[in-house]
Design goal:
Strand content: 25-35%
GO molecular function: metal ion binding; N-acylsphingosine amidohydrolase activity
Structural class: alpha+beta
Radius of gyration: 26 Å
Keywords: Hydrolase, Lipid metabolism, Metal-binding, Sphingolipid metabolism, Zinc
Largest sheet: 9 strands, mixed
Bound molecules: 2-acetamido-2-deoxy-beta-D-glucopyranose
Helix content: 10-25%
Number of domains: 2
Family: Belongs to the neutral ceramidase family.
Shape: globular
Pfam family, one: Ceramidase_alk
Catalytic activity: an N-acylsphing-4-enine + H2O = sphing-4-enine + a fatty acid
Number of strands: 39
Amino acid sequence: MYIPSFSSAIADSVFPFNWLQDAMHAFIIYLAAFFATTPSSEVGSPSSGSEKYLIGLGIGDVTGPVVETNMMGYASLAQTDTGLHMRQRSRAFIVADTSNPSERILFINSDICMSDTGIRRTILSSLASRYGDIYTPANTALVGTHAHSGVGGYLENLLPQVTSRGYVNDTAAAIVSGTLKAIADAHNSLAPGNLKLGNTTLQNANRNRSPSAYLANPEWERAMYEGDQDWTVSVLGFEDTNGRARGLMSFFPVHGTSLYENNTLVSGDNKGMAAWMYESYIEPSSMPGNNSFVAGFVQSNMGDTSPNTLGAFCESPGKPWDGQPCEVEHSTCGNLTEDCHGRGPGFRISDFESNRMIGQAQFEATRTVMEGNNMTRVSGSVKSVHVYLDMTNYSFTLPNGTLARTCPAALGYSFAGGTSDGPGAFDFTQGHNSSQPSNPFWEIVKIFITPPPSEEQIACQYPKPILLNSGYAHEPYDWAPGTVDVQMLRVGQFVILVMPGELTTMAGRRMREALRVKLIADGILDNRAYVVIAGPGNTYGHYVATREEYGVQRYEGASTIFGPATLEAYINRYSELVLHLADNDTGSPLSNAAPLEQTSKSISMQNPVIVDHPSIFKDFGDVLIDVESSTYYAGDTVAVRFVGANPRNNLRLEGTFFTVDQQVNGEWVVIRTDSHPSTTYKWNRTSTVLGTSTVDARWTIEDGTPAGTYRITYYGDAKSFLGDISAFTGVSSTFTVN
Ligand SMILES: *[C@@H]1O[C@H](CO)[C@@H](O)[C@H](O)[C@H]1NC(C)=O
Ligand SMILES: *[C@@H]1O[C@H](CO)[C@@H](O)[C@H](O)[C@H]1NC(C)=O
Ligand SMILES: *[C@@H]1O[C@H](CO)[C@@H](O)[C@H](O)[C@H]1NC(C)=O
Ligand SMILES: *[C@@H]1O[C@H](CO)[C@@H](O)[C@H](O)[C@H]1NC(C)=O
Ligand SMILES: *[C@@H]1O[C@H](CO)[C@@H](O)[C@H](O)[C@H]1NC(C)=O
Ligand SMILES: *[C@@H]1O[C@H](CO)[C@@H](O)[C@H](O)[C@H]1NC(C)=O
Ligand SMILES: *[C@@H]1O[C@H](CO)[C@@H](O)[C@H](O)[C@H]1NC(C)=O
Ligand SMILES: *[C@@H]1O[C@H](CO)[C@@H](O)[C@H](O)[C@H]1NC(C)=O
Ligand SMILES: *[C@@H]1O[C@H](CO)[C@@H](O)[C@H](O)[C@H]1NC(C)=O
Ligand SMILES: *[C@@H]1O[C@H](CO)[C@@H](O)[C@H](O)[C@H]1NC(C)=O
Ligand SMILES: *[C@@H]1O[C@H](CO)[C@@H](O)[C@H](O)[C@H]1NC(C)=O
């Protein structure tokens, strides 16, 4: 690990833009550091108030093209986005050791389905050119919230690209630029502060979707825990030296599948909702994404954990089993998976209501911890460790002395069955049934079909029946990852295990317990050690089920790609690395080689925007359907249709496709943007030949909206035949809210 000299680290990293401020702050930080390192303040002892961290927080817009692009998560070819519910954000959290600011961590929580090796590589190389050796593969973690309603096409491996028709550069570029913006804001806001830690119990916001697999875990082990999902919400609070809260990270396992696969409006799902709720609760007048208080709702061991808390039921109109619970072991209705759907708590009202409720539950629980005066001060060193691990054939010794190994990736049959959160996956039946519409990307790549598994691979993956031998498929580029990121971040007694996949409930419990025991046994932390799981982070290595769950081969077991010993391999390798979290450690662990770059080989089939035209006798931004009435009340929805243009022409990152404006003292003031959950933006290409399209802007008026005069303004960007793009606006008639 590179350790710059103390003074250059301050100058380079803390306040780089104003030398006078630099000098003053550097002096204050120097003093703080001096006191922190005097013998009266023992490392690891509860802080007396002198031991502070440098903390920085930032937020950035990562929303890719909100139309004509496949959405990431359900792997449904039909789920092409048509507009926007809420923008996706990256939230960056930096913690540096005041006495040695080169010891720092950068944790990025992004409203994307999962992190990706290619995106991480691009971000790290930009960070290197911008900040030198300050942010490194070791100390920088990129973690997805597992939202299933974000824009797709950004992953580097081939398999997740099947439904997005290859790589979508615009999506990847938006994630990179918004994340870099979040990091820059975090870096520029670095200031002394404190961290505190607490937890609470949250029930009825998640439910195990594979309870029959969970039951395969030993009874004595299950008896140690309440329930077949984790209910703990763990909160890391960030505050300035005056005790004012600056932000938080809240860890809770629940899939980002509150919005179903029939939703086509881009959204951050329940974690994005929780984050917006918290941020707007602290800064009610800030527009979404323009806040300085940053709330990261981080995904945890949610592999088998659904937000569909009412359970899974058959939606089979006309069939005797319509409305009945699905068959439990296979999640089927009349022997088919397609009709079995989980139901969220707002099922009777709307899918968006379930999303709101699961978001709100996480927000409220986190607020209880933050405002509860029962949080523990975090104190001690800032440390990080990262290695690449080749999971295609990792050999190690199990605790009982038996040798074990992992295998090249493969997916089992149940993978294609999907889950009750989203039945059926990755469109595999397309190639098998020629009477169904064919997927052009699949048509190209299927000629590189996965090679049949060898006897060795079949034995290694046993008892998984192999559907896709993806670890042996490298043409035209790798279908599945072989090398993943193993990473741990430590701040004082708080340790984050950044996992390259989706751990099931019990897999997460085993991982956390094993690492906590190891940290204490090796004298790295005392029994204050508090260990959490964050993921899917860095590389997407699919699922991680326990060996017993793997045997049952539900979706999670079938998607545990590196074989039955996957979890044990991670426990083994992470445990070996805990010594690098010790206060005095300066060593560099041995690492496998980084995975090879393959973004440059990727096939992209997304057509560019050809042209936009207003219809005859119209102009862009003209109102086609105006507000219906001159007076509205809370609960009403105002809807306006404009002559539109393709929003792919300009993603308007950090901006908005429309605003709701209120007249205040004769001036129009923006009170809502396209990212408020009370608004939706929908685009419709009305004629491909003519290049015409419409935009629907809607606002459902919240309780408490002040009475007054309002209007809706649309911001569009049209592409001409020559290819240049010009901005335009459209404005509705005014209306009053009473
Ligand atoms: C992808 O997007 C980035 C960032 O906008 C751009 O620099 C790059 O040229 C694009 N690549 C392709 C293949 O379009
Ligand atoms: C909550 O935090 C307390 C204090 O650190 C700890 O004893 C307890 O185990 C935590 N609960 C869970 C479920 O982690
Ligand atoms: C979306 O799918 C869910 C689950 O199948 C269903 O209950 C709901 O009615 C669907 N919504 C719409 C608008 O079709
Ligand atoms: C964002 O906040 C800054 C100040 O914090 C303010 O100057 C700016 O106008 C805000 N932008 C929007 C779009 O609200
Ligand atoms: C489901 O499969 C079972 C066993 O093959 C069979 O007995 C049953 O009739 C099937 N049910 C339906 C509705 O097809
Ligand atoms: C406060 O936190 C401690 C652990 O840090 C826990 O044991 C105790 O139950 C909590 N008290 C309340 C009122 O939540
Ligand atoms: C895994 O490694 C062992 C030796 O360590 C070797 O015998 C075996 O062929 C390897 N398997 C694969 C799939 O590479
Ligand atoms: C050790 O554990 C593995 C995995 O549970 C098991 O397959 C193996 O039989 C065990 N070996 C012994 C000697 O108990
Ligand atoms: C293909 O699938 C469709 C819809 O599921 C079905 O109607 C059709 O019979 C199938 N064709 C063949 C050849 O199996
Ligand atoms: C770190 O400290 C521990 C305990 O004080 C000691 O055993 C170990 O050798 C030290 N390691 C290094 C690399 O200095
Ligand atoms: C989009 O426009 C076409 C052509 O006017 C119309 O047929 C279709 O119903 C519209 N779709 C939506 C979702 O409004």
